[in-house]
Amino acid sequence: MLLPLYVSLKDVLNSNYDLRALFETRDLYPTIGRSLLLASLTAIGGAFIAVPQAYFLSRYKIPMKKLWLILCVLPLVFPSYISAYSYLAAFDNMGFYENITGWKFPFKISGSLFGTWMSMTLVNSPLIFLMTYAALQRQSPSCEESARLLGSNSFQIFTRITLPSLKIPIASGMLLVCLYTLSDFGTPSILNYKTLTYYIFQHLDRGSFDRASFFALILIVIAFFFLQLEVYMTRRRSLITDNKSRHISHYCSPLKTTVILSFFSASVFLSCLLPLATILYWFSKGKSELMFNKELFSAASNSSILAVAAAIIATLFAIPTAWCAIRKKGLFGKFADRISFLGNMFPGLVIGLAFVSFFVSFNIFGYSFYQTLWLPILGCAIRFLPQAVSSVKTSLVQINPRLEEASQVLGHSDFHTKLKITAPLLRPGVLAGFALVFISTLKELPITLLLAEPGKFYLTQNIWNLIDDAEYSRVAAPALLLLGISCISLYFILNQKLINSDD
Predict the structure, then answer these.
(1) Any idea where the domains of the chain sit in the sequence?
(2) Which stretches are transmembrane (predicted)?
(3) Long-range contact list for 234-240, CB < 8 A, 24+ apart?
């Protein structure tokens, strides 16, 4: 977990340039400013979409509530680079919008802050939605009901009571969005918006490892700052009242229902239906014999194998880490828990860069890991280990230790107790963590670009190369295949968590 930080520091300290020359790198400070501006605007835009969605779903009886719940989370299925490609293919010159309407789109998408911001906001807003919706489900209804009895209307209740109590989960979700935006590589590269990840890849492509590592180190420092703020918010979020005795669910007038459903329809259309429609449009323009071939299905198979292997390794490390953090609560448990979450601090591009720099000359008993399947598996396992740990910890916290104590009092061994009592209760969290790592690995772009074995291709590489060549119609097939596999994993996660908990 510490390897990316170690390699970045080593490359910078061993650089041919001194630190002053590195800090005087051209476009360094404007690039940092653009990255922070994009992250901040994306978090704000995501909050304006996600908070009303969560509030309406948790507080009002609206038609097809479960369907809207799924649709609000569905943008997580779309990799950011596929969404960026779809908006570029829809609104760029001779794109979907211009071919249908005959008019050019009024806003520039490629090379602009607006296009990058729109794509990143629509993809990442579910992160804020999930935290806000979970907090609303835990809130005690007494304060809102008292305000309603005292004559306050719905808007006053929301602004004076509900929203102030949601400051911590909303801020925590926004910090996570900032973290994901800073670490994203695909969207800025496709839309030609020059952020830190854009320059890391450019310097790496030119063979300038020291400058690439310098930009990577700056990105790690910024990400560490956001991660520490998110950890602080998470600790405070645990102080929120947890009352699951009953939920507020108000009936609303036909006019209010129409307004709410219009808002949901607009947000779902922009975040899900428009990208999907664009992909299907370009799919219809292509030739099936060129799109569906052996190479495509081979790439899908390679991606699935990589995702399964990374998910297995991450889950195997997540279980003892979560157990030490929750049950042991010693110095080692705290250390393991903190170290496991470093994956959130290292973007995939930084991990890929570190692995290339380190493993190119590293071997064990004459065996080199460089350009083998082990490197992308290990890179993805490190990158997404925090997701597995969080999922397992969530299930472990909900298991009452007295059940295990009762089993041991009745004469069962510690092994038999864990096998018959703990393991079945822990299974949903383990499976959900496995699915989270699987779907994240399936979408991971920079690690597969930098660490893939020679001659072996993944769906993400296939999509990236075709987008780079502006082969929009040929991108559609691998994009649809990737979305289909991701949807299966997302359905499993929702079935394990959101839908069942909502019941």
Answers:
(1) 37-192+220-285, 286-503
(2) 36-55, 67-88, 114-136, 157-182, 214-234, 255-283, 303-326, 346-367, 373-392, 430-452, 472-494
(3) 234/172, 236/168, 237/131, 237/135, 237/168, 237/169, 237/172, 240/135, 240/138, 240/139, 240/165, 240/168, 240/169
Maximum alpha-carbon separation in the chain: 78
Average pLDDT over residues 431-440: 87
Cα–Cα distance between 436 and 440 in angstroms, integer? Answer: 6
Q: Distance between CA 261 and CA 141 in Å, rounded? A: 24
Fold of 286-503: MetI-like fold (1.10.3720)
pLDDT for 450-469, tens place per residue? Answer: 998 888 889 898 888 888 77
DSSP letter for each residue of 467-484: HHTT-HHHHHHHHHHHHH
Residue 131 has pLDDT above 90, yes or no: no
Query: Model pTM?
Result: 0.84
Q: Is 151 left (phi over 0), alpha (psi -120 to 50) or beta?
A: left
How many whole angstroms separate alpha carbon 181 and alpha carbon 61? 34
- CA-nearest of 219, 183, 176, 204 to 80 is 183
CATH architecture of 37-192+220-285: Orthogonal Bundle (1.10)
Return the residue matching tokens 């559609």: 476
| Alpha carbons 3 and 14: distance in angstroms, whole number | 16
Please name the residues in contact with 125: beta carbons below 8 A apart, sequence gap of 6 or more. Answer: 45, 46, 47, 49, 50, 75, 177, 267, 271
Q: Which amino acid is at 257?
A: T
Provide the token pair at 200.
């890391």
Hey, do 37-192+220-285 and 286-503 end up sharing a CATH topology, with the first three levels equal? Answer: yes
